[in-house]
Amino acid sequence: MRDHQIFTLKNGIRVVHNHITTTKIVHCGIMLDIGSRDESAASQGIAHFWEHMAFKGTSKRNSFHILNRLESLGGELNAFTDKEKILFYASLRDEYFERALELLADITFDSVFPAAQIAKERKVILEEMAMYHDDPEDSLQDEFDALIFSGHSLGMNILGTADTVKKFKRRDFLAFVKAHLDTSKIVFSCVGNLPMEKVIMLAEKHLGAIPKVRSRVKRSAFGGYRTREKSLQRPVKQARVAIGRTAYHQAHEKRSSFFMLTNILGGGGMNSRLNMALREKHGFVYNIGAQFVPFTDTGLFVISFGTEPAQLVKSIGLVREEMKKLRDEKLGVKQLAASKAQILGHLAMAEENNLGFMIMMARTLLDVGRLTSLEAIFERVNQTTAADLQALANDMFDEAKMSQLIMHP
Question: How many helices (H) and strands (E) does the chain have?
């Protein structure tokens, strides 16, 4: 892993920086440990709505000035909300780093949530919801989340519902921010050709005056998973399938090995077992993959694909057959070596992505409290044995613990 430095401001906000000299672009962002899982049933979608509203006005800028501040320099300003995090981030030439940091601090901590802009942005989000509902892959994932995490906020749609989004008022945003903002759970992350001393100095200038606050709200842990099966009818041309279960959390010792096993089964490579069995051998699918998403207290493993209805039963059978092979048969010496080389290559290439690296540093620091070197991750992968992977497969690919969602045309 590239060298990094961490500094904590007096208000508890942590600053993490990776100084690299081979670029003129700086990527930086403010990540908050707040996401859709921190909402109630009545406030579904408010974290994502807050992300949108951050661009709509602060006490010293209107929406035009916010959007034009970096764009006019060829830079980019963006944000995202997921189950556990909100990130406001920017990418631009490093000579304008301070401008980016000041703007990020402004929109994160000084949004005023203008009523007129709330009404306007509400329409935008409702259109965004319609767009996602029209996309079978996105709607399949949302439905599967609800199935796996039934009765828990992890199962709620990040965008919320039409009913909740239509009801939010300015006071709701202010109350949500006040209840959940915690400066000890905020990280400013940066990657670029800047000395750490300069990053600290400017972080002190623009983030150091943020009042120290602590949230009393405790995140509700997920428990009590049980298998479920569900069939839906949707206006789609293919049958869409999701098969999976809960998985390991972010800090679990088996997390790296399970990433490796998931990659063998259905990773992004064309040589994954699922792709070879369903696409290359039988031509049943165009795209199929397996994904492992760890959260702070649990995780999600899911296999997803689309196929013609006439091939649905055979396709599901082939998926379950490939999982059974990994349960019943240890990888050979050459297979294990090839699998390790592939996942190590993916990890090394991921580290070359400076924007992704900036995001990874912030997320890992919030979730685990420390950053692990790439060398340490490589060592864990290299120490994984064929017996380890078979034991993992028997635990995580247990047929009796798998849930299934089918979206029929």
Answer: 15, 11
User: Is the pLDDT score of 234 beyond 60?
Assistant: yes
CA distance 367 to 63: 32
CATH number of 5-207: 3.30.830.10
Residues near 393 by beta carbon (within 8 Å), at least 6 away in sequence:
261, 323, 326, 327
Give residue 134's pLDDT band: very low, low, confident or very high (50, 70, 90): confident
**359 confidence band (pLDDT: 50, 70, 90):** very high
E-strand ranges in 101-228 read: 186-192
List C-alpha distances in Å: 154 to 49, 149, 150, 175, 366.
17, 6, 8, 21, 18
pLDDT for position 155:
97
The predicted pLDDT at position 183 comes to: 98
Residues of the chain with CATH 3.30.830.10: 5-207, 229-408
Structure tokens given for 6? 């961490």
Closest CA to 286 of 270, 310, 263: 270
CATH T-level topology, domain 229-408: Cytochrome Bc1 Complex; Chain A, domain 1 (3.30.830)
What is the number of other CB atoms lying within 10 angstroms of the CB of residue 266? 25
Which three-class secondary structure state does DSSP give residue 306? strand
